[in-house]
């Protein structure tokens, strides 16, 4: 079951395997920082959350995945869907990947598909 809390333009959504902190550093950008695991159990809720955030009037979406401990093929599918939605709507998408995300993107051949940065601040500045 998901819970949501709000504090000074930061929202946190928690689910059994993943937690997402949502932050708006400015009026045109959103940062979604995920920790835990992106797996089949988390997929439907994350898909809906990302759809909602990308439907808002933003130019840049940064997915901070640096605290993820696990990402399986459903996570790759989710990232590909987000990338397609961003391209179709003119949103700039940037990833801040963890080692496990880097690894699964490399193994699946999708590593070059995404714009990545080492930190959130670098992703926002790019």
Written account of the structure:
It is a single chain. By secondary structure, the protein is α/β, with parallel strands linked by helices. The chain has one domain (3-125): Transcription Regulator spoIIAA (2-Layer Sandwich), CATH 3.30.750. The protein has four helices and six strands; from the N terminus they run ββββαβαβαα. It has a six-stranded mixed sheet. α1 (43-55) packs parallel to α2. It is globular. Mean pLDDT is 89; it is low at 1-8.
Write the layout of secondary structure elements.
Elements: E1 3-7, E2 10-14, E3 18-26, E4 29-38, H1 43-55, E5 60-71, H2 73-89, E6 92-96, H3 99-108, H4 120-125
Parallel strand pairs: 4-5, 5-6
Antiparallel strand pairs: 1-2, 2-3, 3-4
List keywords for this structure.
alpha/beta, Transcription Regulator spoIIAA, 6-stranded mixed beta sheet, 4 helices, Anti-sigma factor antagonist
CATH architecture: 2-Layer Sandwich
* Main β-sheet, spatial strand arrangement: 1-2-3-4-5-6
What name does CATH use for the topology?
A: Transcription Regulator spoIIAA
At the first level of CATH, what is the class?
A: Alpha Beta
| Proportion of residues in β-strands | 35-45%
Given as residue ranges, the uncertain stretches (5+ residues, pLDDT < 50) are 1-8
InterPro entries: Anti-sigma_ant, STAS_dom, STAS_dom_sf
Protein name: Anti-sigma factor antagonist
GO molecular function: anti-sigma factor antagonist activity
Family: Belongs to the anti-sigma-factor antagonist family.
